[in-house]
Every structure is written in structure tokens, then in C-alpha cells.
TrEMBL record:
Record lineage: Bacteria, Pseudomonadati, Pseudomonadota, Gammaproteobacteria, Alteromonadales
Compartments (UniProt record): Cell inner membrane
Region (Hydrophobic): 1-29
PANTHER family referenced in this protein's UniProt entry, alphabetically: ION-TRANSLOCATING OXIDOREDUCTASE COMPLEX SUBUNIT B (PTHR42859:SF3), OXIDOREDUCTASE (PTHR42859)
Keywords associated with the record: 4Fe-4S, Cell inner membrane, Cell membrane, Electron transport, Iron, Iron-sulfur, Membrane, Metal-binding, Repeat, Translocase, Transport
Cofactor(s) needed by this chain: [4Fe-4S] cluster
Homology family: Belongs to the 4Fe4S bacterial-type ferredoxin family. RnfB subfamily.
Protein name according to UniProt: Ion-translocating oxidoreductase complex subunit B
Gene: rsxB
């Protein structure tokens, strides 16, 4: 009976500790919340969120911060001219053409792994910035097409060249409004 009482007491003690520490963490998250720059958030919303790094930054959020700090707005090939125009409207600067040093605008594509040729090396999984590739070591891999941003970063690391970038087809569920027709609200 004393053994059961000891287990019960230990469970109550752990539960109370979890409750106290949870309350402390909840208070700290509210009290010490870091406010973000609203301009960076607006710029980040306009970027395509491919996280491809073609702009020279590790993702869209760091590039948004760089734009807010004065970097050029024409370094995003996945966003293309439409994104450059939207960024120019938001920032109140003149729209320029895409900087060729960072690539060229292309049609939307997604990765496709020829699974019968995949050797399961996991190099494509490590290269994918948005975790759109599923698989395990020495097992075939596959791409979650709804998550794939078409950044093309998984193709080069593949040692057996079994990844193709295929154009996506516009369907009623994947169709999006023309980004140029949506007005931009400037930050004051």
C-alpha cells in the first residue's frame, strides 16, 4: 500500500511542477514578447515563400528584412516581375526588372521523384527548405506536391539524377488571383 501511495504522491508532485512551470512560461511569453517590424511582415507576405535562397539570403524572411534595410527588390526569380512591382508599390520606389545574376523567372514547377530509380540517399531531403520530401535512408522518397515550392534545390544533390521538375497545371483548387490586380496598402 505504501508503494502505491509513493507513486500517487510522485504523480501529484510532477503534475504540480508542470502546472507551475507552464504558468511561468505562459507569463514569460506574454511579458517578454518581441514585436516584429510591420514593414518586414508586409514585405514577407508579398514574397513567394519558396525559401529557395536564389536571392542570396537563406529564406524569404531574411530577404524581407534586407529589403526593409535598403537592399534591392529585384532579386527574387520565383516571384518574378509581379512581385517586384508589388514590392515597388509598397516601398514607394521605382520597379526594375529582375536581376539576371539571381536567375530568371520561370513557370511554376514541382519536384517529381522517379521512385523506382531512387536509392534512398536522403540528400534531397536535406536540401529541401520546406520539408516537402518524404522518405527514409535506403528507402524510396516521394514529394508532397502541395508543399513543394519548386525551388529546384533538391535536383543537384541527387547522385542518381532521379528528380525531375515538372510544370504544375492550373486546376480550380490551385488557381490563384493575379497578384498585380490586388491593391497594396502602404505603411505610413
Amino acid at each position: 500500500m505504501s508503494f502505491m501511495w509513493a507513486i500517487f504522491t510522485a504523480l501529484i508532485a510532477v503534475g504540480l511542477l508542470a502546472l507551475v512551470f507552464g504558468a511561468i512560461l505562459g507569463f514569460a511569453s506574454i511579458r517578454f514578447k518581441v514585436e516584429g517590424d510591420p514593414l518586414v511582415e508586409q514585405i514577407d507576405e508579398l514574397l513567394p515563400q519558396t525559401q529557395c535562397g536564389q536571392c542570396g539570403y537563406p529564406g524569404c524572411k531574411p530577404y524581407a528584412q534586407a529589403i526593409a534595410d535598403g537592399d534591392d527588390i529585384n532579386k527574387c526569380p520565383p516571384g518574378g516581375d509581379a512581385t517586384i512591382k508589388r514590392l515597388a508599390d509598397l516601398m514607394g520606389v521605382e520597379a526594375t526588372s529582375l536581376d539576371a545574376a539571381h536567375g530568371s523567372e520561370d513557370i511554376k514547377k514541382v519536384a517529381f521523384i522517379r521512385e523506382d530509380e531512387c536509392i534512398g540517399c536522403t540528400k534531397c531531403i536535406q536540401a529541401c527548405p520546406v520539408d516537402a520530401i518524404l522518405g527514409a535512408a535506403k528507402q524510396m522518397h516521394t514529394v508532397i506536391t502541395d508543399e513543394c515550392t519548386g525551388c529546384d534545390l533538391c535536383v543537384d544533390p541527387c547522385p542518381v539524377d532521379c528528380i525531375d521538375m515538372i510544370p504544375t497545371q492550373t486546376t480550380p483548387s490551385s488557381w490563384r488571383w493575379n497578384i498585380e490586380s490586388i491593391p497594396v496598402k502602404q505603411v505610413s
